[in-house]
């Protein structure tokens, strides 16, 4: 984890150091380059990354639901099965589809950290498993971080857009930084 963070930071600092040098321009008075103090500087990007990280932590949700569709980058989950968070099932984030449970009919999602996510969501970067792989109609219970939206085609020709979550905080920060408009 520390190695990944160090590599990520080194890549960001190297990239934005070069961007700052390219962004410099000459003023009319002399030949001194003028470099803007924006988010292109390493300190500005670091601050933006920390802001995004704090937002991801503040908006994290518990995804507890049934896998409806497996896709190359993750899976679609119908979240809102709160009974999956009971004692005998809390040993793994992946629960076999043979478990008997039902979706809460009147569940409303709160706007606070660690509340249960309700509705269809796309989950990327789930935790690693020692044995097996997720299958359609299995259940998941995991804490995930928001990373925007995801559009897919369920069955017909009409695309559907759902919220996208990542099971990894560093991946969520990276995805959110990629989506931010360039300064």
Structural key phrases:
183 residues; alpha+beta; 5-stranded mixed barrel; two-stranded antiparallel ribbon; 3 helices; 9 strands; globular; disordered N terminus
How would you describe what is shown here?
The protein has 183 residues and is α+β, with helices and mostly antiparallel strands. It folds into 2 domains: 2-23 and 36-57, no CATH class; 60-178, no CATH class. The chain is 27% helix and 28% strand. The protein contains 3 helices and 9 strands. The strands form 2 sheets. The protein has a 5-stranded mixed barrel with strand order 3-4-7-9-8. A two-stranded antiparallel sheet has the order 1-2. Strand 8 and strand 9 (160-166) form a beta hairpin. Helix 2 packs across helix 3 (169-179). The protein is globular and about 55 Å long.
Q: What structural class results from the helix and strand content?
A: alpha+beta
- The radius of gyration is 21 Å
Compute the number of structural domains: 2
Q: Strand portion, in percent?
A: 25-35%
Percent of residues in helices comes to 25-40%
- β-strand number: 9
Strand order of the largest sheet: 3-4-7-9-8
